[in-house]
Design brief:
Elements: H1 3-9, H2 19-27, H3 56-71
Length: 72
């Protein structure tokens, strides 16, 4: 959990975070939307890597991401 999410949970301000990070808090009404859906910001995440082979951990991570891409 991010620090700003924790602070919002504690009633110490507003947090602009991905909805997926707070879906349970929203369902339990621990947090509520501060604005309408007009405030939503759609994002696209792009990940780049060198062509050369990387460490085992990096290659496993990349394989995981490419598998997710095929599913989604």
């Amino acid at each position: 959990v991010t620090a700003i999410t924790a602070m919002a949970r504690d009633g110490r301000g507003v947090a602009w975070v991905p909805q997926t990070m707070v879906v349970d808090d929203l369902a339990r009404r621990v947090l509520v939307r501060a604005g309408s859906a007009d405030w939503d910001v759609e994002t696209e995440i792009r990940i780049y890597r060198p062509r050369a082979r990387q460490s085992l951990a990096a290659e496993q991570f990349w394989s995981h991401l490419t598998a997710l891409q095929k599913v989604g």
